[in-house]
Design brief:
The protein is mainly alpha-helical and 208 residues long. Helices cover 75% and strands 0% of the residues. The chain has one domain.
Length: 208
């Protein structure tokens, strides 16, 4: 009896230690919705940048934003996409926490997670701006994919999720994108739409 109590006590301590160093996993449904949002953003950005589906190779042609108005519109789409994704993740995490009888709170672990995610994102955004201003706009999609992948790998240390695998896939895709010319729209769609949906389905099935 004492041995069983000791095992249960050790198990409880282990769970407490895990809870103190990691937060809940990212919801699979959140990843799927992020992919759907990204799909809408891809379509909107394509037409804003001057895409034309009537062309023989509509996704291969270079899309150059000449006017400040177009650039402002693309930035607005990107900001709206990020806001929608963050709001969805927080909302679903809150619902999941309620079901477990817990509350979302900003503690040291959460602060580290946010720093690990937004620091690479911020650096990548600044690098994209520098690249664009210097006329090398074709590399922006690969930079986005690579730094987003680094952010996902970084937060995997603070969650129970397999986000690091999604991060590795984004990084690899970004490197391939950097080596291939005039296909940025396709790679961006694969990374932010297809990969998110596939990861979301995998995560949902795994934790069902």
């Amino acid at each position: 009896m004492k041995e069983q109590e000791a095992i249960e006590t050790l198990d409880s301590i282990k769970k407490m230690m895990e809870s103190s160093t990691r937060i809940m996993s990212l919801d699979g449904a959140s990843a799927i919705l992020a992919g759907v949002y990204a799909l809408v953003a891809v379509v909107a950005g394509y037409f804003i940048a001057g895409g034309d589906f009537s062309q023989s190779n509509p996704f291969v042609s270079s899309l150059i934003v000449f006017s400040p108005g177009k650039l402002t519109a693309l930035v607005a789409v990107a900001v709206a996409l990020m806001a929608a994704c963050i709001a969805t993740v927080i909302s679903m995490a809150r619902c999941k926490a309620r079901k477990r009888g817990e509350r979302l709170r900003l503690d040291r672990v959460s602060a580290r997670l946010l720093w690990s995610f937004f620091m690479p994102i911020a650096v990548g955004a600044m690098l994209c701006i520098i690249i664009y201003l210097n006329g090398h706009w074709g590399l922006t999609s690969s930079v986005m994919l690579i730094f987003y992948g680094l952010a996902l790998v970084g937060i995997s240390h603070y969650t129970y999720s397999d986000s690091r695998y999604l991060g590795y896939a984004e990084i690899a895709l970004g490197l391939v994108d950097a080596a291939v010319d005039r296909h940025g729209m396709i790679f961006w769609a694969i990374g932010f739409v297809l990969f998110h949906i596939v990861y979301g389905i995998y995560s949902t099935v795994k934790h069902k």
